């Protein structure tokens, strides 16, 4: 199990098994190296070792940020693909239903007019009225579903942005140290 300050800061962060193994291996190697060299450290070499540890720690932070961005990106792509597939299936089903209804209506209308050749009966008028009402309901439902999908997608994008902002806000110390480093470099 990886024991690191970053795992305490990100308790719900998912790490792939391969990434966790690599990080655990690096951590154990680093711990063994530090334990074996702890006895022979001189005060001057301690500062160099601390700088090296700090550099490795920052590298690990960059790796975790990159892994998190990649996971968020992959999740977003997966949701977009599922959304697009669902939308295509829904549009296809609606088109097929509309085509069947139109074909049935044409056949009914032609058959009725061809056989009877009389003015529309009250049953035909009722059928046409119900058909048109049903078509309006289908169109309204389709518009409502498309609007709901757009709202869900906007909410998802907003959540991802908030999540990325919160990840960036968790590392103000790193930004502050970079700012201090810039000030001293002048």
Radius of gyration: 32 Å
Order of helices and strands: HHHHH
Category by helix and strand content: mainly alpha
Q: How far apart lie the N and C ends?
A: 43 Å
The counted number of beta strands is: 0
Helix content, binned percent: over 70%
| Separate helix tally | 5
Could you state the oligomeric state of the chains shown?
Answer: single chain
User: Can you tell me the overall shape?
Assistant: rod-shaped
Poorly predicted regions are none
Residue fraction in strands: under 5%
Give a short account of the largest sheet. Answer: none
How much is the average pLDDT?
A: 80
Task: Write up this protein.
The protein has a domain of 114 residues. The chain is 87% helix and 0% strand. The longest helix has 74 residues. It is rod-shaped and about 105 Å long.
Defining key terms:
186 residues, 5 helices, mainly alpha
Question: Which helices and strands, and how do they pair?
Answer:
Layout: H1 5-9, H2 17-37, H3 43-116, H4 122-169, H5 172-185
Helix pairs in contact: 3-4
